Amino acid sequence: MNPGRLPVWNSVIDVIDRAPLGSDDKLRLQHFTMLLFIGVPSMLAFALVVGLKGERTLCLSVLLTVCGLVAGWILISRGVRAVLVYRTDSLIFCALLLYMAVIGGQDGSKILWTYAFPLIGFFLMGKREGMAWVAAVYGMSALIVLGRVPGIEVYPYSGEFSARYLVTMFCVTVIAYGFEHFRELYRLGMEQERSRLQLALEHVKTLSGLLPICSGCKKIRDDRGYWNQLESYLDLHTDVRFSHGLCPDCIKEFFPGYEDEPDFDGDGMGRPDPQG
User: What is the pTM of this model?
Assistant: First the structure.
């Protein structure tokens, strides 16, 4: 189902559009929203399953993480600095993932939740900081599956499982990094195009179409039906500025004998003194 057709999704997007955020933060918040739309129902279902199995600590941890993620979304939409919220939520989510990696679960299946983190880390924190977070999770997960965590009893992962997990987790990380890289390239390209168009609009105002103009007085009728002086209309709709003067023909007609005066140059800027 297309989320754009869901009324609740449209309402959420309206909230994001009205949020006091920059364009890039709004885009990241949209990514965060999509992750919540997918992740929160999955996490709630998982919490229900483990709760019914009697794993109360894990159930409570998942529910607290969900509350933290939703609270983070609300804070960002109200103007709280996004990067601080993303870091806090990432720290909470990482703690949950590593806890599940330690307990393992049935056949070590709980560690598979860590596959979601590279996508989340890169999308919310960008390539550079996201790589630091993902590398930290990958490194700690590697220590856990290899049984190299002193003082903590971890699930006994087999060597074959550990090898498959580390290879596939690396592949997921590379793919998620690639997605973020091309997303950033697209965003930068769009910003450059927007800047170019804005610069063009600031320097060029183009009149196009058919303009009704009076054959007698040369006034122009605007789109509201009012008649405006030609100079006023062009001054409003273009960057043209007028310097009023007299052309040689008008000098001859209105001021005969002044056409050869040096004050009357080719631009028609001269003015005779009527009292002179």
Answer: 0.65
